[in-house]
Amino acid sequence: MAAVVVCGLIAVLGSEPVAARRAQAGLERPDIVMVVLDDVVAGSMPRLLARLPSMRERFVETGIRFTSAIGETPMCCPGRAGLLTGQHTHNHGVFRNNASRFDPTVTLATVLDDRGYYTALAGKYFNRMFGLKDKTPPGWDHIAGFSGGYYEYLMWVDGVAEGHHSLESDHSVDVSTGHAVDFIEQAPADQPLFLWFSPYAVHGEDGWYPKPAPRHIDDPRCDGVANWKPPNYAESDLSDKPAWIRARGPMGFFPTGWPMEPMCDTLLSVDEGFAAIEDALAPRGRLDDTIWVLVADNGMTYGQHSLTGKLVPYATPIPLYVSWPAGRGETQRTEDLLVSNIDIAPTLAALAGATMPDADGLDWSPLLRDQPVDLGRGEVLESLPETLASQPDLPAWWGIRTADKRWHYIEWSTGERELYDLTSDPWELTSRDRDSAYARYIPGLSARLHALMPDG
C-alpha cells in the first residue's frame, strides 16, 4: 500500500518553480483541489476531523468552516450533479442514482478546462458509471472514475477498464489516491490544476458500515471518538412527523449513539491520500496558491428521527470547509452564511475568472478573501422531486431553509407539511404546522417555496 500512496511523490523539477512559470505565462489563477466525501452527516465532521492530522491542519486549523451548508437533494447522484453544474435538481434532471441521467456537456470541469485548467478526477464519479457508453466525459483531461465500492470494482482510467479485487492494495481509497498523485505529476507546468478527489469513504457497504483499509481497522488514533447521538437520535415521539414515518414507528438503535469509530478508521486512508496530494503539489510550487474544498456529496441520517439513510429533508446539512492560504491567509474561522452545494461551482468558476452557464447557485467567492458578501438570498431550496422505486413508501417532497436560520418548511407530495422553528427547536423535534400560534407564517413560507419550484 505504501507504494500506492507515495509512488511518484518525489520528482526532479526544473530550477524555476511552477508558480513562477505560470505567472510569466499570465496564468495566475489558483489551483483547485476538491475532496468530495460520500454519505457524511454534517454534525459528525468536527469530531472526525479531530482524528485526521493532515485534513485537520488544512481545513480546521487554517480554513473556513461553513456551519450552514445545505445539499439540495440528499442523494449521491443528484448531489454530485449539483456540485458539478450549480443547478437545482429539477433543472439538471438527475433525480436518481444513475450516471446515465447526467448530462456532462456543461460542468465545472468543462468551464475550467476552457479556461486553461488541467482537469483530473480520481475516485467515484456517479453511481452506475458502468452503464455509460462513454466513460471519458467532456471537460476532464484525465479521469480515473468508478461507481463506488471498497473492493471488487472496475475503475475506468481514461476509458480503459482497470479491474480491482480483494487484495489490500485494491482498497479503493488507496487506488484513487494513486491516480490523483499520477495526475498531479502529469500536469503541465504552465497550466493551473483542478483536481476532483472523490474517495468512496465513508459510504456504508456492510449494512451501514464502511470498510476501513486493513491497516486501519481498530486504529488507536480513532479510539474513543464520540458516538453520534444528537437530541433527535432514536426519537420515540413521531406524532408530528409525516404518515410514512409514523407507519415505520420508532426504531431501535445503539443506545449509546451511532458508532463513529468505523468511519474514523476509514477516513484515515483519506487523510493519508490527502497528505500524498499535498506532498505531490509541494515540490511543484502549487501548494500555497491552491483553493482546497472539503465537502460531501450529500448528508445523512444516522438515527435522527428514528431514520437511517438519506433522501429525507432532515439529511440536507452537509459538511463544507474551504482553505486558501494565498487568498485569505491561514486564520481559522467559521462562516454561518446559508449556502448550498449548488453555489460551489459558480464560486470556484468566479475565482478562476469564469462563469457557470445556467447556474442557479450563487457566487460567494468574496468570503474566500474574508470580504463581506450579500447574496440577496432569502432561502435555499431542498427537494426530492420524485418518489423512488427503491423506496415507494417515501413520498416526494420540497422544502426551504430561510437565510435568517429560523425556518425549515417542507411540503410532501401527500399534502402533508412540516414547519420547524429552528431558533427554539434546532433538532426539529416538534413540527409546528398544526400549531395555531404558527399558522400565520405558513402561507408566506409556502409562497417562498413555490417561487423556487418548477411550477413557480
Structure description:
Strands 7-6-5-4-8-1-9-12-2-13 form a ten-stranded mixed beta sheet, with helices on both faces. A four-stranded antiparallel beta sheet has the order 15-16-17-18, covered by helices on one side. The chain has a two-stranded parallel ribbon with strand order 3-14. It has helices spanning about 1-5, 20-25, 45-50, 55-60, 75-85, 90, 110-115, 170-185, 245-250, 260-280, 325-330, 345-350, 440-450; strands at about 30-35, 65, 70, 120-125, 140-145, 155, 160-165, 195-200, 290-295, 300, 310, 320-325, 335, 340, 380-385, 395-400, 405-410, 415-420. It is α/β, with parallel strands linked by helices. It is about 25% helix and about 20% strand. It has one domain: Alkaline Phosphatase, subunit A.
Brief descriptors of the model:
single chain; 10-stranded mixed β-sheet; disordered N terminus; globular; 18% strand; 25% helix; 13 helices; Alkaline Phosphatase, subunit A; alpha/beta
